[in-house]
Structure formats: C-alpha cells, structure tokens
C-alpha cells in the first residue's frame, strides 16, 4: 500500500471543495436550482397544485406523447425525495441521487472532462434511459405484463441522470474498487420493496438499470479514447 495515498486524499478533499465553484460551475448551479425548486414545490405551493405539477412533469407515456420536451425539462428540475425526513427510504435515495450522483459524481465528471461532457453524461441517463424505458413499457403493455394505468404513472426527478453519472464515475476509481462500485450502482435500484408486476421489474427499476448501462458505456468509450490518445502521444514523442 502506498502510505502517501491516504494523505493525498485528506489534502485533496479541501482543495476540491475550495475549487468546486470554479471547476464544476454547471453542477453547482444545477444543485442550487434543484434545492430552490424543491423548496418552492414543498413549501410555496398548495398540496393540490404541487400534485398537479408533479403529474404534469412526470415522464410517463401520456405526457411523453402530449408534451415530451416540457415533461423532460420539468422532470430534470425537481428531485423526488426528501432532505428532512431522515428516517425514510426517500432520504436514502436522495443521498444517493442528489448527494453522490449529482453533487459528487457529476461534479467530478465536469471537473475532469469539462462541462459539455458532464452534461452529456447526465442527459444520456435522463433522456436516453427515459425513452428506452418508454419503449419497454409499450412492449410490456402489449404483453400484459404491466397494468394499463402505468401510462399515467408518476415518474419524475433526476435519478436516471444521477444514475448515469454514478456509473460514469467508475473512471475515478482505482481498478480494485471498480467492481464493488459497479455492483453498488446496479444493486441499489433493486433494494427495497419493489414488486414485479410480471416477468420483468417495475419500470423505474428498469430505467435505473438502463441509465447505469448508458453511464458504464460512456465510461468505456471515454477510457478507450484516453488510452488511444496516450498511445498516439507516446508514439509521437518517440518519433
């Protein structure tokens, strides 16, 4: 074991926090929007208006057919969870999605690869996984695996994008930690009381697994590009 590694982590963390606004401005601004949006919906709107808003921005089949862009954008601006009810499962989900997924993983991606690539990772999960999940739902409805009311189910929030960022963050880890991290990213959506309505999981579990797959795929492509760039740079240096 390298004795300098723990010391490097301890000294690097304060620096990462200090430079966070400068090196991860998109993530910082996005977290601020999420917190403001959550406070507005929870404390600024009546219960009925809040429920109506959540229903309107849910990325279910009916909304994706009627107003897909507004549903996608609205869903990305409101997280489905809590920061106050620490005894609930929703608090654990918020820590994983908003905390690890956005505040840590997305910020690292922006810091390491730049704002456009970090945004691409998030959108791959938020948009890509949502659309693929919609196709899965259509297939499941045709096969009778899901009830008909799934077309208007509540499904909003940042978790698909956060899940993609969590998977992409595998590049930040040493090789020995990558398999346990991948297992965690794939396992946490399966935890809890999720009932399978048929031969496949309920659609939000599928969405999280698809988002993770997209994040891992982007990580693999990025790693291969980095290796190729390093090889070319070495060859040029020798030439």
UniProtKB/TrEMBL annotation:
It is found in: Membrane. The chain crosses the membrane at residues 25-41, 86-108, 120-141, 205-223. It is a multi-pass membrane protein. Keywords: Membrane, Transmembrane, Transmembrane helix. Pfam families: Rhomboid_2 (PF20401). InterPro entries: Rhomboid-like_sf, Rhomboid_2. The keyword NAD does not apply. The keyword DNA-binding does not apply. This is Rhomboid family intramembrane serine protease.
